Amino acid sequence: MTYPPVLIGQSVAAIDTPALVIDLDAMEANLQAMADFTREHGILLRPHAKMHKSATLAKLQIAAGAVGVCVQKTAEAEALAAGGVNDIYISNEVIAPHKLKRVVALARTLAERGGQLALAVDSLHGIAQLALAVQGQSVRIRVLVEIDVGHGRCGVQPGATAVPLVNAIAEHSTMLFGGLQAYQGRAQHLRTAVEREAAVAQVVTDVQRTITALQDAGHSVPLVTGAGSGTFGLETASGIYGELQAGSYLFMDRDYASNQAAPGQPRFQHALFLKSQVMSLCATHAVVDAGHKSHAIDSGLPAVHGLPLDYANGGDEHGQLRPQQPGGLLPALGDTVWLIPGHCDPTVNLHNVMIGVRGGLQNGVVEQLIRVDSRGALT
Amino acid sequence: MTYPPVLIGQSVAAIDTPALVIDLDAMEANLQAMADFTREHGILLRPHAKMHKSATLAKLQIAAGAVGVCVQKTAEAEALAAGGVNDIYISNEVIAPHKLKRVVALARTLAERGGQLALAVDSLHGIAQLALAVQGQSVRIRVLVEIDVGHGRCGVQPGATAVPLVNAIAEHSTMLFGGLQAYQGRAQHLRTAVEREAAVAQVVTDVQRTITALQDAGHSVPLVTGAGSGTFGLETASGIYGELQAGSYLFMDRDYASNQAAPGQPRFQHALFLKSQVMSLCATHAVVDAGHKSHAIDSGLPAVHGLPLDYANGGDEHGQLRPQQPGGLLPALGDTVWLIPGHCDPTVNLHNVMIGVRGGLQNGVVEQLIRVDSRGALT
């Protein structure tokens, strides 16, 4: 009884609404721009697959030069591994013993395929739990220590606080110290380039003094990994980071596009759109069939693509469109309206499929149905 | 590779996190309280299944006396019908010709089973499109005219504006005028009982003058349907409403619970919880593994159940807990924390399954895994 939203080869006009549509031409331009950037700067790219949640797109990124992907959840790693992704880093802490058993089982699977699994830690407790789970399992897990470089969420404080954790990792032959996880999520969304530069300068100082403390304790730091689509040019320029975790660059969203241009970074195009339809109309506003069950609102409401209209939240299943200027025109009943989601990651997570369109939103053709493999993979 | 979050018969402690858990004892008390209320007041109940999205729970409500369910989307209706629900009202407008074909096909299926499908309209265009879709299809569709009773979204203005629509419906032997759809969503969430009473008094006036206009034009109005969990006692007391659409009463959420008690309504219990785990801890805060990919934030952040902690949004996959009082205790690494979602409807839509627990959150046992059948059923 589940109807596909469209069939491959049909026109854009045939896509049932609301539906998440990828402009493949724009996405491939973004893919190429990032591949060019990382190659030119000699830095590794491990894009965050929590954004697109798709094994197909993860493999596309790896084919374009990425070393693997990041995820936030064990279940995401499992879903992407099932879809053929072999190098996965869970850039987040896992504490629960039964979940760590899954992590270890997946690490073995990936190692047998010639790939690898890595995991972040920020506590001695987490390292001890991982040690119990991996004991006798004939696999070695790459472990990165997360430091809090200003995001204020997970991670130990920068500096000498990281030393006991790396000491503990070094005590276990089942673990390999992989380096530092240092991600400043807040810096990504600061509006001006000056603010982002100041935030990343602090990040670099924090990472540097942690490296110094670890070196003083006799540990070398093989890698610093982090950065996102809002600042990766700055982390790259620092010379300290060896790997970038940017994910949103592939699709872009309204929030990232609101940032002022980041010096030293390529500009990316909007590649992710929500197709909606006007299904009610009155004198003051039009109502589209896309509410916050079809796009996330944590980073603000969607923009209306190509029309001078503002989107107001109409609840779970509706959006209200009003002219930006008094007397402005409203669309007609039945019209298609393209929305640009405020935040791509949790928007993708609401959908089972993304529809890849070739040749533009107006007259394009559906080329690909891309499954959201790790949608709802929460654990 | 998809691991079930828990197995039936296991303890609550075994539920992997984050996971959506139903306290079955509390849910059944809510179910019974609403059944008692509607029976005592002689009013029909057609709960909104956009809330739980589950055929199992829809059938439970029907077994307890509900006449059927509402949904907002054609795809939701299809998913619930596939799960054995036979009486479904799409309380929303459908405009697209290909979607109306699906509506008609589903109406035939339900009629063959002895059930029925109904649909809301608010435009002559919508009625004309439905007429084209249903022509020659040997089924009659019950059509309700939506009026805007203060919600400011869909619906024609109250009063004589509804007359041409009912005239148009009456011209088609394939349609049956089912009455008025009159839902004031904003009234549900007004904090004080006095504000809600004033809003519903206006609703009742608007409905009454629409009925009068239709009667003057020679139409009888077989039913007025609407109301939600925040105000249904008021619509019931009006004597004009014949059917209630309340849905959230079954689970309750933090937002509804923040309302002052509604005079003339039973009190409902929290029955929906998000089980989460502390996976990072520092001096100032604890971090749980549940962010806004596991609960909706459109109506505010979740409450922390039974602990003097405030939840702050930590992004897609994390939540930050801080003591409500300076010097208050934080939970330990690995501790379970139960969250009460801000808004149940879009929270359920993030999950593939709800875990039904018997005997309480502390020592209960998993009795049922309830599939979210219409999760992501957006079209």
Could you explain the architecture of this structure?
Two copies of one chain form a homodimer. By secondary structure, chain A is of the alpha/beta class. The first copy, chain A, folds into two domains: 12-19 and 268-371, Lyase, Ornithine Decarboxylase, Chain A, domain 1; 28-251, TIM Barrel. Helix content of chain A is 30%, strand content 21%. The first copy, chain A, contains eleven helices and 17 strands. In chain A, strands 1, 10, 11, 12, 13, 14, 15, 16 and 17 form a nine-stranded mixed sheet that branches. In chain A, helix 3 (74-82) packs parallel to helix 4 and helix 4 packs across helix 5. The radius of gyration of chain A is 22 Å and the shape is globular. The relative contact order of chain A is 0.17. The model of chain A has no long low-confidence stretch (mean pLDDT 96). At the A-B interface, helix 3, helix 4 and strand 10 of A face helix 3, helix 4 and strand 10 of B.
Supply the number of helical segments of chain A.
11
Kindly report the CATH topology of the largest domain in chain A: TIM Barrel
Output the radius of gyration of chain A: 22 Å
**End-to-end separation of chain A:** 28 Å
Shape of chain A: globular
Can you count the beta strands of chain A?
17
Give the uncertain stretches of chain A in residue-range form.
Answer: none
Q: What is the assembly state of the chains in this entry? A: homodimer
Quick overview:
The structure is a homodimer of 379-residue chains. The first copy, chain A, has two domains: 12-19 and 268-371, D-serine dehydratase-like domain (Lyase, Ornithine Decarboxylase, Chain A, domain 1, Beta Barrel); 28-251, Alanine racemase (TIM Barrel, Alpha-Beta Barrel), CATH 3.20.20.10.
